[in-house]
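Tutorial, part two.
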Amino acid sequence: MSGIKACVKCRTFKTFEEFYRDAKLADKKSSECIACNKASRQKYREANREKERIRNRDYGKRRSELIQARVKRWRKANPGKERAKNRMREVQKLNACPPWARKGETRKLIQQFYLHAQWLEDATGLAFHVDHTVPLKNDFVCGLHVPANLMVLEASQNISKSAYWWPEQLPCQRGKGSSHSWWREMKQNEHLCDW
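Running the prediction step on this input gives:
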């Protein structure tokens, strides 16, 4: 709705876009323009600083409690999405998630693994994990947090697998690096290298 209206404070004619909305009035626009409204609110705030400070503090406290309650409800209603979000934060700290996997469709694909794991848990009553086929942290390889490297496993299988096995693993890569004599020798001589 477009039109012209007079402001009761500055007594000038202005377009409807220069007035706040007010559903109580016939034309659905406030009686004073936005500029006059802001000026009167500023004047009131300056005259009532202490009262405004207390009101804002109380509002912030009430709002904080409302937000915390809303977040708690969301987490309870969406455990799979919460797990995906927390895991994404963890892998970003490890620099194991490329920038293109953190947003858009790729992020949604990653989230689907966590939603599927949650669905399996709800359906079977067993614990399921989203596992990285190639481990994120290992002495020999470093996988990425991308859909091609994810799979849903029963928790007991994932725990027994640990981070010391992956497909196409060479015999010299089994176990921890420190369990191999050549690894220990390489680490001891590392300080002699020029690189």
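Helices lie at 34-47, 49-77, 79-93, 104-124, 155-161, 181-188. In part three we will examine how such features are distributed along the chain.
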